């Protein structure tokens, strides 16, 4: 198995999936959950804060109120922080990129990369390149992954390969993993992306 060739194929698969996702991209926040998590990203980029008080200003809607009287999202911050680079890019570049639209591209990128990871994982299981490519494309285009690629929800970021496969990737592709403790990723990812934040109104 040629590691370099597989890495190149994985890169092309990610690009192909991302390009297809762009065909159905709307750049619209569809739910209150999406608005709340996007508000965290915007607050962090603009002010270095994690509150969502702009939701009250714009929509008269607030999340949980903390003891400091600020409003915070009840979702994990992982997704919001992952979207920070594109949000900052749209905000500070002297181009009218559209803050919301550019930030939402993060989800499509994440799902496309997940498709590439599916390919690498199946190759690690000694399946042929053809079968691995088909499986990765089926994952990206024939499952809810395509739906999630258009949304700003936490589910796309919680999509992950089982820790045993990640561990095998670490062994098989040490250069790509960069020596990171891959076995610990699922637990940390759960805390960042899947945990409901326990912020309650003080009594």
Protein architecture, described:
A two-stranded antiparallel ribbon has the order 1-2. The N and C termini lie far apart (61 Å). Mean pLDDT is 75; it is low at 161-165 and 178-203. The protein has 203 residues and is an all-alpha fold. Strand 1 (64-65) and strand 2 (71-72) form a beta hairpin. It has one domain (3-194). It is built from twelve helices and two strands, in the order H-H-H-E-E-H-H-H-H-H-H-H-H-H. The longest helix is centred in the middle third of the chain and has 26 residues, at 99-124. Helix 1 runs parallel beside helix 7 (129-141) and helix 2 packs across helix 5. The protein has helices spanning 3-23, 32-47, 54-59, 78-82, 84-92, 99-124, 129-141, 145-148, 155-158, 163-172, 174-177, 185-194, and strands at residues 64-65, 71-72.
Brief rundown of the structure:
This protein has 203 residues and is mainly α. The protein contains twelve helices and two strands. It has a two-stranded antiparallel sheet.
Strand line-up in the sheet with most strands: 1-2
Q: Total number of helical segments?
A: 12
The total of beta strands comes to 2
Roughly what percent helix? Answer: 55-70%
Q: What's the order of the H and E elements?
A: HHHEEHHHHHHHHH
> Mean of the pLDDT scores?
75
Radius of gyration: 19 Å
Q: Report how far the terminal alpha carbons are from each other.
A: 61 Å
Global shape: elongated
Structural class: mainly alpha
- As for the number of domains, it is 1
Largest sheet: 2 strands, antiparallel
Unreliable parts = 161-165, 178-203
Percent range for β-strand residues:
under 5%
């Amino acid at each position: 198995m040629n590691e370099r060739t597989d890495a190149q194929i994985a890169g092309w698969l990610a690009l192909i999936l991302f390009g297809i996702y762009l065909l159905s991209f709307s750049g619209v926040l569809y739910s209150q959950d999406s608005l709340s998590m996007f508000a965290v990203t915007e607050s962090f980029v603009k002010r270095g804060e994690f509150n969502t008080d702009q939701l009250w200003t714009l929509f008269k809607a607030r999340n949980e109120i903390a003891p400091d009287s600020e409003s915070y999202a009840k979702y994990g911050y992982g997704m919001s922080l992952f979207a920070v680079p594109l949000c900052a890019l749209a905000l500070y570049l002297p181009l009218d990129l559209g803050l919301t639209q550019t930030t939402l591209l993060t989800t499509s990128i994440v799902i496309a990369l997940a498709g590439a990871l599916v390919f690498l994982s199946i190759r690690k299981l000694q399946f042929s390149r053809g079968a691995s490519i088909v499986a990765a494309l089926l994952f990206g285009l024939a499952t809810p992954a395509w739906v999630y690629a258009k949304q700003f929800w936490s589910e796309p970021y919680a999509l992950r390969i089982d820790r045993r496969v990640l561990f095998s990737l670490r062994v098989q592709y040490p250069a790509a993993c960069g020596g990171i403790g891959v076995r610990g990723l699922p637990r940390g990812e759960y805390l960042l992306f899947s945990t409901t934040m326990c912020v309650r109104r003080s009594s």
